Amino acid sequence: MLQGYHLITLTHRNAPLEAIGQLIPSTDALPGLLRSLKQHFNWEELYALTTCNRALFAFYTPDPVNDQELKETLMAMLNPALSPEKTAELSKLFHIFHGGDAVRHVFEVASAMDSLVVGEREIVRQLRAAYENCVAWGITGDHFRLLITQAIEVSKQVFNQTGIGEKALSVVALAFHSMRDKGLRNSDHIVLVGAGETNALLAKFLQKEGFSRVTVFNRTFEKATQIAQTFEQGAAYSLDALHTYTQPFDAMVVCTGATTPIITPELYGHLIQNDRSVKTIVDLSVPNNVARAVTTAFPVHYVEIEGLRELAAEHMAFRENERQNAEKIISQRMAAYRDIWHERQVERSLRPMIDQIKTVKSRAVEEVFADRFAQLDDTSQALMLEMLEYMEKKCIAIPVKTMKEVAAKRIPGGRVTA
């Protein structure tokens, strides 16, 4: 059945990210390493997926697999510089799957059920890109073409029929959605206080959604400029310039490394002048960079990081619950994949016969009956070719259907597709 599939993996679930990083080869070294690995074990096919939190090596072979030998050889080839003690320590962290369990794990990975962030859709792109690389490197073939194609279809069904990918999880995404919920429009003017990683990520959300009026304040002016210049109407200032800034704005996002409030009632009053419209303030700093008195002295929609973290935890719990629905889909697709795989093996086994039938038809027209065929008018030739095409398809379909029926009878609950 599916016994030829095998998989060995090291992920965030069973190893520190630092350890995974030690075992992921450079992009340049990976193709050669994989070819050597495939040749060493004489595997028919090999597929590899490596990310910042996952090292996955799947292979196809009808031969028995020695788990211990697999671990030791893989470790030695991935990082020969590791000490014997470190090698022994890390080798214990690998998980190995065989047969149907290996196939199921690929389906779970594709459906983001095994991701660091459950429901993260980026894994599907990574899965497909890894397969395309393996094809280009000449290390994989029909078994993994079939598996990866089905894995992508399974992921589509999981994402479409469950909520595993719904409800944002990152604080930055939640902050942006909160601003939208408060009525933020694309034409509004946004002020970013701080130009670190968090506000840089938020700026990407703003840019993607079509915002153009963004002003950035930061202690390091160069960092503020890097973010501001990505917007059509972007502007950059040093952090000290906040005390003299008087341009109207609609929302403010604050995230700096300061340990005391930067936005005080006095400074905020200066910033808004006589403007008493309700503005949205998002404080993503730890500790808060917006003084609590600002939220009571002025009409604002205030969003702080602790509230977003609680919301992220709720969303994560929701996604985890959706895993059960995803598991049901995968179980159903596992049964279907067994049938699909067996049908494909029937087609592969009959390929020589199919090629011979096609060759007989071509030889009949081009050699055996070539002279008599040439004497026919265009209409008769077209009819003859159509009849031969029909006979070719029927001559192929009959043995294929028979073989599939035989194979299905050997599988409990087997399905037959003509």
Distance between the termini: 20 Å
Q: Strands of the biggest beta sheet: in what spatial order?
A: 7-6-5-8-9-10
Global outline: elongated
* Topology pattern, helix = H, strand = E: EHHEEHHEHHHHEHEHEEHEHEHHH
Low-confidence stretches: 410-418
Helix tally?
Answer: 15
CATH level-4 homologous superfamily of the largest domain? Glutamyl-tRNA reductase, N-terminal domain
Structure, explained:
The chain folds into 3 domains: 163 residues, Glutamyl-tRNA reductase, N-terminal domain (Beta Polymerase, domain 2, 2-Layer Sandwich); 136 residues, Rossmann fold (3-Layer(aba) Sandwich), CATH 3.40.50.720; 61 residues. Helix content is 55%, strand content 13%. It has 15 helices and 10 strands. α7 packs across α13 and α8 packs across α9. It starts with a strand and ends in a 9-residue tail after the last helix.
Write the layout of secondary structure elements.
Blueprint: E1 5-11, H1 17-23, H2 30-41, E2 45-51, E3 54-60, H3 67-78, H4 84-91, E4 95-98, H5 100-110, H6 122-136, H7 142-161, H8 171-181, E5 190-193, H9 197-208, E6 213-218, H10 221-228, E7 233-238, E8 251-254, H11 265-272, E9 279-283, H12 292-297, E10 300-304, H13 305-368, H14 370-374, H15 378-409
Parallel strand pairs: 5-6, 5-8, 6-7, 8-9, 9-10
Antiparallel strand pairs: 1-3, 1-4, 2-3
Helix pairs in contact: 3-4, 5-7, 5-13, 6-7, 7-13, 8-9, 13-15
